[in-house]
Structures are given as C-alpha cells and as structure tokens.
Design brief:
With 298 residues, this protein is mostly helical. The protein has helices at residues 2-27, 52-81, 87-111, 121-148, 151-154, 166-191, 197-205, 211-214, 218-234, 243-265, 270-294.
Length: 298
Amino acid sequence: MKAYQKFTVANLAYTLLVIVWGAYVRASGSGAGCGAHWPLCNGEVLPNTETIKTLIEFTHRTSSGLNLVLVFIGYAWARKIAPKGSWIRTGAFYAVIAICMEAVLGAGLVLLKHVDLDQSVGRAISISLHLVNTLFLLTTLTAVAWYSHHPEQGLQKAKSWIPQNRFFIFCTSVFVLLGISGAITALGDTLFPATSLVNGMQQDLAHDAHFLVRLRVFHPFIAVTWIMLVFIWSQRFEKTETAGIRMLLILGISTQFILGVLNWVLMAPIAMQLVHLFVADLVFITFWISGHVDRGVA
C-alpha cells in the first residue's frame, strides 16, 4: 500500500504536467504540429521534429500516451490490493474511463482540425468537452491518491462518486462553468490577441466582435462567484482537525484571484496562462478532497 500511495501521488502530479503542457500546445499554436494525423504524427511513428511546433505537439502526444499507460498500471495495481467496489478500485476504474475519453477527445481535436487558427463553434465545443473530461480525470486520480493514504476508508465500499452535499454540487457546477469559460477565454486570447489593455476591452465591447471574444467577459464574473462560494464552503472546516483544508482553500482561491488579475492586466502571456491553469487545478483538487472530508469518510 505504501508503494501504491507514492505511485498515485506521482501519477496525479504527472497528469497535472501533461494538462499544463496541453495548454501550452494550444497557446503556442502547435496543435497542428503533427498535421491531421492521429495517432501517428505527420503519418510517421517518429516524425521529423526539426519544426518546433511538431516537436511541441509530438512531445504532448508522447507524454499523454505515457499518462494512459500509468493510469492502466494504477488500475491493475488497484485490482490486486483493493476489493471490488472499494473507493480505491472504483476510482482507479473511473480513471481508466477518463483517460480513454481524453484520448478520444484529443484525437477528435486533431482529426476535426479544431486546432491552430480554427475559430469555429465546433472548436469551442470540443475544448469545452475536453475540459470537462479533464476535470473528471482529476477527480478520479485525486480520489485514488486520497483514499490510498486513508486505506481504512479506501478499502471500504464506495458511496456516490460526487459528495451528496447540495452546496458542494452547486460549487462543483460553477467550477465546471468557470473552467469552460476559462478555456474559451484562453482560446480567444490566443486567436485574437490584444495590443493593450484598452484594446482588449474595445475588442470585448465591439458590436462585430467574434463570439470567442464576446464570451471572454463572462470568465471574470464566474471566477468571482466561484471564489465567494468556496470561501463560504471553507467555513465548515473551522475545527482544528480540518483547519488545514480551510487554509489551503482560502490560500488557493486568493492566489487564483491574484493570478487572474495579473493575467488580464498583462494581456495573458503564455507563461501566466500556464501558471493560472496549474493553480486552478490545484484549487480544484483541494476542493474535491474537501468534499470527501466533509461527508466524514476521512
């Protein structure tokens, strides 16, 4: 179990890096680096990577493939150490479903050419679906890591996957909307970069603005709503034994807010986008753990 505990944390950390690198593929305009080929890259197993965009996209595909292998290893391992229907084994099984869906959705982006300079509604839908499934993947790997460190609960029969607290479910729904709006905003920033802060606001308010630009204005409002909701949610962890969860949640949303403002003021430089995404994922992971802590299973 101790070895499995280390593996689950490493797998979750690696998945976060793959997610951030995937965002870099989009931000750098490298999504078409392997052409409209999948799973091959430009029709080859080992493509010529002299072009930087091909190297970036091929690296992402390779790292994603390793991610899939690690998730399958985690499930095979869980079958040996945890009974059927337990939290650990159920989470590992859901992780397999999620990572397979990631591969399908990633392939769809490439084969449907929803990459590079594509500005279609289809691309907005594709990245939204990809975002939702990525969050699902994070919930599975987070749960497996958490319960493997609490085997007294992790080996027990799993209950409903989403903690059945209505406020928690509402907060989760708002975060999903926040993630979708963030993905669309980031895409709009990539395809329609602003030359200045004023120019960016003019783009947002222009009557003939592209729909990806028009949708950018919703992200900060949803973000503020999410932050307030999580602050309210954190109040239930005031007891000494759960005060750490509350501190992490408040620290996370505060950092997330500051990074969001900097991202806007600095006109979304790629490095800032990646840091903002990374912190947002860490906050979501902490929030998901708090839901399981709240229902008394940890």
